[in-house]
Design a protein that fits this description.
The protein is mostly beta strands and 221 residues long. The protein has a single domain, classed as Clam (outer membrane lipoprotein receptor (LolB), chain A), CATH 2.50.20. It has two helices and 14 strands; from the N terminus they run αββββββββαββββββ.
Length: 221
């Protein structure tokens, strides 16, 4: 699910990008919509993000990314892959170019996705967005004010929506992102709980050696 795309917009200078700290974060998403019939629908989910150097790993908590059968039944033994729920590994190669793969432990698969297919799985190729969730250099028309612990608040009201984002300069990551319609019938939020990456903590991308590599195009058969 794409969430808060209008707010997913902030790039740091090359010097700051090189200095982003290693961390582990839990990201909590919530979307609340009130329909014309008065029925309120709420969607919530959480992700875990691990960032170290040139690697970023995101995994949907409590999710199963495979095992959905074709509409005509399971007789062919083929499973759909839900890439939104699969664990995503983005890293920079020796040339500084992003690479992408998805880990599906239940199916013992490690799916490599080439650049031509990135849009198919919801990846726009931005290392900044992959590693920092938002690109603050692209926030236009937002007022900026101080927050707690050296953070900064970005706020804007336009086109019937109010938006605000709390940015941690220490972690180079948002702490909170919120978007709300002025009539209160639609609101989205993202909250981020951050901890330093502990020394010696197992890195999830280093645990994929037992998985069988497969090209994304081969999963479409």
């Amino acid at each position: 699910m794409k969430i808060l795309l209008p707010l997913a917009l902030l790039a740091l200078s090359p010097a700051l990008r090189a200095a982003v700290p290693d961390l582990v974060a839990t990201i909590s998403y919530e979307t609340v919509t009130v329909g014309n019939d008065g029925v309120e629908k709420t969607i919530r989910y959480r992700e875990k993000l691990t960032r170290q150097g040139k690697h970023v790993w995101r995994e949907r908590l409590n999710a199963r990314a495979g095992g959905h059968d074709h509409d005509h039944g399971a007789e062919d033994g083929h499973d759909h892959i839900d890439y939104a729920a699969a664990s995503r590994h983005v890293w920079l190669d020796a040339k500084g170019q992003p690479r992408l793969e998805f880990a599906l432990p239940q199916q013992r698969l490690l799916v490599q996705v080439g650049q031509r297919e990135w849009s198919d799985v919801g990846f726009d190729g931005s290392w900044t967005l992959a590693s920092q969730l938002v690109d603050i250099a692209k926030l236009k028309g937002f007022t900026v004010g101080p927050g707690a612990d050296g953070s900064r608040w970005y706020r804007k009201t336009a086109n019937g929506r109010s938006k605000q984002l709390q940015w941690s300069t220490r972690w180079a990551l948002p702490l909170r992102v919120e978007s709300r319609s002025q009539d209160g019938r639609h609101r989205e939020s993202m909250r981020v709980d951050i901890h330093p990456l502990a020394a010696g903590q197992p890195l999830p991308w280093a645990q994929t050696g037992r998985l069988r590599g497969k090209d994304y195009m081969d999963t479409l058969d």
